[in-house]
Design goal:
Shape: globular
Number of domains: 2
CATH class of the largest domain: Alpha Beta
Structural class: alpha+beta
CATH topology of the largest domain: Creatine Kinase, Chain A, domain 2
CATH superfamily of the largest domain: Glutamine synthetase/guanido kinase, catalytic domain
Number of helices: 11
Helix content: 25-40%
Distance between the termini: 65 Å
CATH architecture of the largest domain: 2-Layer Sandwich
């Protein structure tokens, strides 16, 4: 700032939907005041729907409580450059109430609390995410005006793993990688995927909080880089009847000396901890599904033969299972395949930790792996709609014990609001089906 390179700091929080919200602070004001004292924002930022409506029913924020402020406390370890806004920096904030108490329902705080439980055991979590998205040649403004119909994909045929670049997409992807790296998001690479115009960002394995922060910054940046190119992209879980956008989460544990916790001398080369941690994922996946699939659209992904899981199962390098175990020794980990591109990663990783610790606490035994097609197995299935996932989450003793009633009620209300909005809507499907023929 002293030499004029930086003038603005984007001071942001992570909302319930995993988006960045906040304000732009003048550089000198940030250094002199915000960096030490924080800044305030209205608490409805943790009590809105996807369209930022002031919906009611939240204990935190409502018309009856006057919509008070919360305090945004900058986490300076998250400070980063924004190559798409060269004169700006971005800093992520932790959230407090007016008395300086951390807000339990803040996604970052939900994850911090679960990571603290791991620390009691002397463990840290490592996470890597794989984030899929669809790219269109239409600008965001054009896509909106066209009602998101008849959009032009950057490829008109399947390009899974293809390196052929006859449509000029490679230049955009290279700029995207450079921009995210410039923003401190460690990227392993990008590849084309099965759906038309679909790609996947592979974010590097790192400590859980940083991995989740990088994930939300990657989504934030990707949209802006695309917009600067006259393109648009979407992370919604299911855009059409073809393959949806997934968010695969790779997860492992290390002890305080950096040694792997999951590897051992037991069956499959697992430690006892790995077996019970993985068993916990399977046992409590139904009642924690809401934290992996938070929207009505999320459940449209769960279709047999679509690379999205339906059976609550695990297997070795088996992409038909909800939990895919890969690696060995120090690289041993599992890939959670349930979330879509619309997931809030902080909440999803929190659910992984909560289920795993519960499995360890109960010394759960691990079932045999699925070696064939899990879609055709007799295993129990994941909830098929948001309404069922909400019921299971609200009634879950595991969720209540891990996150507290305040958090469970808050995110249950989020799902209720989504369902209320959907139930009021009239879809294109209904119009085409019933306009003339009913």
């Amino acid at each position: 700032m002293a030499n004029g390179e930086i003038g603005t700091i984007e001071v942001v929080l992570i909302d319930m939907q995993g988006r960045l919200q906040g304000k732009r602070a003048q550089g000198r004001h940030f250094v002199e005041r915000v960096m030490s004292d924080g800044t305030e924002a209205q608490n409805y930022l943790l009590a809105t729907d996807i369209e930022m409506n002031t919906v009611q029913g939240y204990e935190l924020a409502s018309w009856s409580s006057g919509y008070a402020n919360l305090r945004m406390r900058p986490d300076l370890s998250s400070l980063r450059r924004l190559p798409w806004h060269p004169e700006s920096l971005l800093v992520l904030c932790d959230l407090e109430d007016r008395d300086g108490v951390p807000l339990a329902m803040s996604p970052r705080q939900v994850l911090r609390n679960q990571l603290s439980q791991l620390e009691i055991h002397g463990w840290t979590a490592l996470v890597g995410t794989e984030l899929e998205f669809l790219v269109f040649r239409d600008s965001y403004e054009a896509a909106w005006s066209e009602g998101y119909r008849d959009l032009t994909r950057v490829s008109q045929y399947g390009i899974d793993y293809s390196m052929l670049d006859t449509r000029g997409t490679g230049g955009f992807l290279s700029r995207l990688i450079r921009s995210l790296e410039g923003a401190g998001v460690d990227i392993e690479g990008v590849l084309s995927e099965a759906n038309l115009g679909q790609h996947e960002l592979v974010l590097a394995f790192t400590d859980a909080l940083r991995a989740c922060d990088n994930h939300v910054v990657a989504k934030f940046g990707a949209k802006q880089v695309a917009a600067s190119e006259g393109l648009s992209l979407t992370f919604m879980a299911k855009f059409d009847s073809n393959e949806g956008n997934s968010c695969h989460i790779h997860f492992s544990l290390r002890d305080l000396s950096g040694r792997p916790v999951f590897a051992g001398t037991g069956t499959h080369g697992f430690s006892d901890i790995m077996e019970s941690f993985l068993a916990g994922q399977l046992a409590y996946l139904p009642e924690l599904t809401l934290m992996f699939a938070p929207n009505v659209n999320s459940y449209k992904r769960f279709v047999e033969g679509s690379y999205a899981p339906t059976a609550i199962s695990w297997g070795f390098d088996n992409r038909t299972c909800a939990l895919r175990v890969v690696g060995s020794g120090a690289s041993l980990r599992f890939e959670h395949r349930l979330p879509g591109g619309d997931v809030n990663p902080h909440l999803a990783v929190s659910a992984i930790v909560a289920a795993g610790l519960r499995g360890i606490g109960e010394k759960l035994s691990l079932a045999e792996p699925i070696s064939g097609n899990a879609y055709a197995s007799a295993m129990p299935t994941v909830p098929t709609n948001l309404r069922e996932a909400l019921r299971l989450f609200r009634e879950s003793e595991v969720a209540s014990a891990a996150f507290g009633a305040e958090v469970v009620n808050h995110y249950s209300r989020m799902a209720e609001v989504e369902l209320e909005a959907f139930d009021r809507s009239v879809t294109d499907w209904e119009k085409f089906r019933g306009f003339e023929r009913m």
